[in-house]
C-alpha cells in the first residue's frame, strides 16, 4: 500500500493532475490486477448477506416505496433487476430500490476506522450496471473488489463525522471507481466520474441524529444511484469539479478539516491485489455495529445479574463513537423514547442493551416492535443505562492492529444492594476474531433464516446455487442473481400513496 497525502491546494498552486486523489483512485480502478481467491469468496459471501437482509426488509414500507419508484421506470434497452419482482428496469432506479432493501434493517456488513461505513452498499449499484451492460460474473467480482477497496481506504484515512458529513460521501466515489473497473473504463472517465459522484453525494449527518427517519435507508442507495448517473455523464465526455477533494473551495477546505488539514489515504500500488473486503465484517444482529458486542455481552451477563428489578444502574464504558452516536453522549432524548422510530431505537445502545438483557436474544422485528418498546419493565431498565467514554476503548476502536481493534464495551451493573457486576467484550461473536466467526455456512444460514416465509425454498436453492458459481456466469447471465417472490408474498407489502411516477 502507498500512503497518499491529501490536503487543500490554492488555485494558483501547481498541482499536477497525477497527484489528485481522484486520479490516484482512478488508477487503482483501472489496474488490471486479478482478484485473489479469498477476496473472491468473500464477495460471494457478501452478495448472499445482502440477499438475506433484502429478504427480511422487502415487505417494509421504505423498501416498498423504493421498489414502486423503480418499477415505474421500465426499460427496453439493457436494464437491471429489482429484488423480488420480474422484469427489467432502469439501472439507476434498480440500484436505488435494491440499495434501500439492503440498508433498511441496518443488518449487513461494516467497516469502522477514522470514518464509518457499510461497504456492502457498493454491491447493489455495481450489480445493477453489470446486469444492464451484460457483464460477466468475473467482471462483477472485479468491480465489487474495487468498490470495497476504495471505500475502506477512504474510511481508514478521512474522517467525515467529525465535521458532521454523512459517511455516504465515501460511497459515491467508491461506487464510481467500482463501475470503472466493471466496465473497463479509462483513467480520464473514471477520474471525472469520481469527482461528480463525490460532488453530488455530500450531505450532513442529520440523517443519523435526533429522530432518525427512513431516509437512513435511502441515503446510501441514493449515493449509488448518483454514482451511476455520474459514470454515465463521464462516459459521454462530461467533466467534474476538480480537484474535488483538494481544491481551494473543495471538500476538504469547506466540508472537512479546512485549508490547513491533511489526510493520509492508503491505496494499493500498481499490480497490488485488492483485499480490503477481508478487513470488513458483517452483523449477526440487526442493529448499529457498535451494538453487536454489547448484545452478545448482555446475553452473557443476564444469568449473573438474575432478577433485573434489582438493578440500580448500568454504565457502559465504551469508545467515543459509541458514546456520542448511539449512547448518552449524543444528548438525544429520542434515544429513551418508547415512541421513537425503529431507526432511532437502532441507534440507542441503552434500549438495545436493556432488551438483550431481558430477552437473551435479538430479533430484527420483535426486538423493535412498538409493544416491545412500551413494556413498563423495559422502560424502567432502559432509563437506568448510560454510557461513558473510555480512552482505552477509543484507542482500540482506532487501532491499526486487527488484534487490538475493538468495538465493544465494559458493563458495570450496580445492584440496589451495592453489589457491582462487571464484564466486558471487545468484539462481537460473529467477528472474524470472535467466538463464532461467520464463514460461508453462517452466511447461508443467515440467508435461509431471513428468507423463511418470504422466499420459496426452491428459489432459495436456485439463488444459492447460482451465486456460488458467480465467477463462471457469462455475459447476460447476471440477472440470475435476482430473487423473485410469489405474488401472494408481495401482496403483503403495505399500501403507499401515489408519487410522481
How is the topology of this model organized?
Elements: E1 2-7, H1 21-30, H2 37-57, H3 61-71, H4 91-103, E2 111-112, E3 116-117, H5 123-133, H6 137-157, H7 171-183, H8 187-199, H9 215-235, H10 251-254, E4 262-267, H11 292-305, E5 311-318, H12 320-326, H13 342-345, H14 349-359, H15 370-373, H16 376-382, E6 385-389, H17 391-397, E7 409-415, E8 420-425, H18 440-451, H19 457-467, H20 487-490
Parallel strand pairs: 5-6
Antiparallel strand pairs: 1-4, 2-3, 5-7, 7-8
Helix pairs in contact: 1-7, 1-8, 2-4, 2-6, 2-18, 3-4, 4-5, 4-9, 5-6, 5-7, 5-9, 6-7, 7-8, 7-9, 8-9, 11-14, 14-16
Describe the fold and architecture:
Monomer. One of its GO terms (molecular function) is aconitate hydratase activity. Pathway: Organic acid metabolism; propanoate degradation; Carbohydrate metabolism; tricarboxylic acid cycle; isocitrate from oxaloacetate: step 1/2. Residues 19-263 form the MmgE/PrpD N-terminal domain. Belongs to the PrpD family. This protein has 501 residues and is an alpha+beta fold. It folds into 2 domains: 2-279, 2-methylcitrate dehydratase PrpD, CATH 1.10.4100; 289-425, 2-methylcitrate dehydratase PrpD (60s Ribosomal Protein L30, Chain: A). It has 20 helices and 8 strands. The chain has helices at 21-30, 37-57, 61-71, 91-103, 123-133, 137-157, 171-183, 187-199, 215-235, 251-254, 292-305, 320-326, 342-345, 349-359, 370-373, 376-382, 391-397, 440-451, 457-467, 487-490; strands spanning 2-7, 111-112, 116-117, 262-267, 311-318, 385-389, 409-415, 420-425. It has a 4-stranded mixed sheet. Strands 1-4 form a two-stranded antiparallel ribbon. A hairpin with a 3-residue loop joins strand 2 (111-112) and strand 3 (116-117). Helix 2 packs parallel to helix 18. The radius of gyration is 22 Å and the shape is globular. The protein starts with a strand and ends in an 11-residue tail after the last helix. The model has no long low-confidence stretch (mean pLDDT 96).
Amino acid at each position: 500500500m502507498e500512503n497518499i497525502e491529501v490536503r487543500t491546494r490554492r488555485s494558483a498552486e501547481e498541482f499536477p493532475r497525477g497527484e489528485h486523489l481522484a486520479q490516484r483512485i482512478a488508477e487503482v480502478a483501472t489496474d488490471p490486477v486479478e482478484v485473489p481467491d479469498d477476496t473472491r469468496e468473500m464477495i460471494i459471501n457478501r452478495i448472499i448477506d445482502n440477499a438475506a437482509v433484502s429478504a427480511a426488509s422487502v415487505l417494509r414500507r421504505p423498501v416498498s416505496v423504493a421498489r414502486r419508484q423503480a418499477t415505474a421506470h421500465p426499460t427496453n434497452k439493457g436494464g437491471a433487476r429489482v429484488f423480488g419482482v420480474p422484469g427489467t428496469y432502469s439501472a439507476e432506479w434498480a440500484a436505488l430500490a435494491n440499495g434501500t432493501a439492503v440498508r433498511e434493517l441496518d443488518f449487513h456488513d461494516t467497516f469502522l476506522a477514522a470514518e464509518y461505513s457499510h461497504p456492502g452498499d457498493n454491491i447493489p449499484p455495481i450489480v445493477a450496471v453489470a446486469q444492464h451492460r451484460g457483464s460477466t460474473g468475473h467482471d462483477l467480482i472485479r468491480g465489487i473488489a474495487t468498490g470495497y477497496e476504495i471505500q475502506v481506504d477512504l474510511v481508514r484515512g478521512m474522517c467525515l463525522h467529525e465535521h458532521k458529513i454523512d459517511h455516504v460521501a465515501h460511497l459515491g466515489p467508491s461506487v464510481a471507481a467500482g463501475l470503472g473497473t466493471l466496465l473497463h473504463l479509462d483513467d480520464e472517465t473514471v477520474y471525472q466520474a469520481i469527482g461528480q459522484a463525490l460532488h453530488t453525494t455530500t450531505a450532513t449527518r442529520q440523517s443519523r441524529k435526533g429522530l432518525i427517519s427512513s431516509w437512513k435507508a435511502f441515503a446510501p442507495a441514493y449515493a449509488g444511484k448518483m454514482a451511476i448517473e455520474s459514470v454515465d455523464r463521464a462516459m459521454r465526455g462530461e467533466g467534474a469539479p476538480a480537484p474535488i477533494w483538494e481544491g481551494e473551495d473543495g471538500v476538504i477546505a469547506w466540508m472537512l478539516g479546512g485549508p490547513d488539514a491533511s489526510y493520509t489515504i492508503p491505496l494499493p500500488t500498481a499490480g497490488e491485489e485488492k483485499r480490503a473486503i477481508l478487513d470488513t465484517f458483517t452483523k449477526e444482529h440487526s442493529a448499529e455495529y457498535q451494538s453487536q458486542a454489547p448484545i452478545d455481552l448482555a446475553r452473557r451477563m443476564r444469568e449473573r445479574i438474575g432478577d433485573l428489578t434489582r438493578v440500580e444502574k448500568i454504565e457502559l464504558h465504551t469508545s467515543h463513537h459509541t458514546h456520542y452516536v448511539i449512547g448518552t453522549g449524543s444528548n438525544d432524548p429520542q434515544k429513551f423514547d418508547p415512541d421513537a422510530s425503529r431507526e432511532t431505537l437502532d441507534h440507542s445502545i441503552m434500549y438495545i442493551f436493556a432488551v438483550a438483557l431481558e430477552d437473551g436474544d435479538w430479533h430484527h422485528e420483535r426486538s423493535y416492535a412498538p409493544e416491545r418498546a412500551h413494556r413498563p419493565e423495559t422502560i424502567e431498565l432502559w432509563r437506568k443505562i448510560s454510557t461513558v467514554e473510555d480512552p482505552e476503548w477509543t484507542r482500540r476502536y482506532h487501532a491499526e492492529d486487527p488484534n487490538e481493534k475493538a468495538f465493544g464495551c465494559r458493563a458495570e451493573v450496580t445492584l440496589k444492594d451495592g453489589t457491582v457486576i462487571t464484564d466486558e467484550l471487545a468484539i462481537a461473536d460473529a467477528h472474524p476474531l470472535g467466538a463464532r466467526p461467520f464463514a460461508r455456512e453462517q452466511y447461508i444460514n443467515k440467508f435461509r433464516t431471513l428468507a423463511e416465509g418470504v422466499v420459496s425454498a426452491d428459489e432459495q436453492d436456485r439463488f444459492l446455487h447460482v451465486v456460488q458459481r458467480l465467477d463462471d456466469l457469462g455475459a447476460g447471465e447476471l440477472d440470475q442473481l435476482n430473487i423473485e417472490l410469489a405474488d401472494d408474498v408481495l401482496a403483503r407489502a403495505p399500501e403507499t400513496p401515489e408519487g410522481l411516477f
